[in-house]
Amino acid sequence: MRRLFWLVMGITVGALVVRKMSKLAERFTARGMGEGIAAALGDLTDAVRGFTADVRGAMAEREAELRAGAGLDGELGAKP
Length: 80
Fold this sequence. Notes:
With 80 residues, this protein is an all-alpha fold. It has helices spanning 2-27, 30-70.
């Protein structure tokens, strides 16, 4: 019974190692590297878009504050 357990354990570990190594080897092929670069560029693009949206929102908020402070918001005399 002990030998059967260790045999099954060895086969399982061997299969897992082979799967991990084949996935790792696939990542270093030209196709795998291309997919990795494409995914990284997609993530970078999303991050830049998010940053740009945050900056535009902050700019609009600050512009509204400046317009209100300078009296250019259309409400003359509303604020001292």
